[in-house]
Amino acid sequence: MSHIVEIQTEVRDPVAVQSVCSRLKLPAAVLGSHRLFQGSVVGLGVQLPDWRYPVVCDLASGQLRYDNFGGRWGEQSQLDRFLQSYAVERARIEIRRKGHTVTEQQLEDGSIRLTVNMGGAA
Fold it and tell me: Among 50, 65, 88, 120, which is 20 to 30 Å from 71 by CA?
């Protein structure tokens, strides 16, 4: 049986964030104070490719803080890729925690299909 799920992502899991950094070959995320264009924010900072400032994850609220100046200081597609990968990594963590296995397939349109095998069977 197949189900399609849409997910609105809140970034709250530091383990999943670090997994995304590894998956996308980004520098490890750093917890602390991070400078944006106007001021500093505290959270888990992720440096996306060619972004002037980091994306800072407020793990308590799940919200992201960043300044890409409407795409001039960083491409939106990089943030979209990060969020998509976060959703996949977070789902994979929960699926494995429940004792199941998961396979992943990158689709031509850029979306990712996860197939959950119940009970850990491959």
Answer: 88
